[in-house]
């Protein structure tokens, strides 16, 4: 349950446990100290600190985007003193929770997600409703445009092509508008998705490297492994959490594959090109590279733009970026 006060602090209570949590609605996150995380997960502070350092050293998260100093008053002996204490956001809390594999951590994540949704929804419910009405109108218009594009009455290739371009760009605009407004939600998705093995991915990348080098578009450094970064990344995408797949759908795996290869830099050079290639390769392996009309779900220009958008995005916007990619991949008939 939660108790609200005038300052941005809420109380998380689970059985006999109570932890003060700072809610940051503007950043869509919450903040805890190491001591509070230790209380939350039933671990000592040293263990929590070790997990946090591993999160940063493995580049799972960016330190500067996930830590904030808050000045808090605490009792030290007979004195009350104000000190600046490091607080860590929800991304770090969840990462630590997965690492300690704590039942308490699962309950907290469920609570935090529900609480954030309640707080963040209150401020823009009317805007959300207004935008969704406009979105439905735009989607209806897009449906008419697509129908016109398939009509026998439109008998020139140029006419069909022009209408098709308008349809595709309008749909992309709709997704980007929802992205800008913070209204994107997870789309209906196709469960499963077979990832390549590290060996299969390595073989595919070597083939790409050979072609690029033959055209003078890459050097020996292209897609060269930095340690076991690629194998670890693929292993993480295929992992289970509490008996359930961490990334349960084709869309989720594809979106995170693109995001993690771009952001984690598993290669000495060519991470963005390698990310785009592995993204397309994964979609091809799972029969999702083309839509029901035989068109690429993301064309070359769109893929390049999406890859650059991921590269330029802030780590704090990771979940929004992933939802954007998943929406672009969503099957129309799901």
UniProtKB/TrEMBL annotation:
<protein>
    <submittedName>
        <fullName>Cytochrome c</fullName>
    </submittedName>
</protein>
<dbReference type="InterPro" id="IPR003812">
    <property type="entry name" value="Fido"/>
</dbReference>
<dbReference type="Pfam" id="PF13310">
    <property type="entry name" value="Virulence_RhuM"/>
</dbReference>
<dbReference type="InterPro" id="IPR053737">
    <property type="entry name" value="Type_II_TA_Toxin"/>
</dbReference>
<dbReference type="InterPro" id="IPR036597">
    <property type="entry name" value="Fido-like_dom_sf"/>
</dbReference>
<dbReference type="InterPro" id="IPR011204">
    <property type="entry name" value="Virulence_RhuM-like"/>
</dbReference>
<feature type="domain" description="Fido">
    <location>
        <begin position="171"/>
        <end position="327"/>
    </location>
</feature>
<dbReference type="Pfam" id="PF02661">
    <property type="entry name" value="Fic"/>
</dbReference>
